[in-house]
Amino acid sequence: MLTVYGDIKSGNCYKVKLVLSLLGIPHHWHDMDILQGDTQDDWYLQKHPFGKIPLIETANGQILSESNAIMGYLAENSALIPNDPFDKAKMYQWMFFEQYSHEPYIAVARFIQYYLGMPEDRLDEYKAIHKKGYKALDLMELTLKNSAFLVGEQFTLADIALFAYTHVAHQGGFDLKNYPSIKQWLTNVEQQSGFVGMIA
């Protein structure tokens, strides 16, 4: 059986958890606690020398890391990946956007505020990343004004990737009251068959 190593509070791990649930893939979830240093234990570093999560281990011992790569592997030949080449490229465009223009700001702000309790030595960083985080939300709002999901009307891995940290953006101090299209999109994602919450 597939084994998943992840922290249920992590947005990147939640992406994998959500894909597994949506597709009904049997697996064993091995819970890790980042803040307790579980990813630095010797046994885990033998699997992943960088000590990062999420990580999956297949039944025959193959190891795969990086949340978006794991999602792509799990969702191969499913409806979560468009058949049309251009739509598939748009899905990947949003997934790269999530990693480089969204997660570094939305997720890091959440970590500073929600997990670290806003330490004084990170206040300047927090303020700076807020501006960039809102810029990412602005682009999502502009796109979602015209479609139910990020790649038109098809629910894809792009939506899962960006849902993970957007739905808890408030924990990083981001106010979504001026983003009605994003709020509707969050509801659209939550209504998908097989949806499961982050902490469920």
Automatic annotation (TrEMBL):
Residues 84-200 form the GST C-terminal domain. This is Glutathione S-transferase family protein. It comes from the Bacteria. It comes from Shewanella holmiensis. Residues 1-82 form the GST N-terminal domain. InterPro entries: Glutathione-S-Trfase_C-like (IPR010987), Glutathione-S-Trfase_C_sf (IPR036282), Glutathione_S-Trfase (IPR040079), Glutathione_S-Trfase_N (IPR004045), GST_C (IPR004046), Thioredoxin-like_sf (IPR036249). Gene3D superfamilies: 1.20.1050.10, Glutaredoxin.
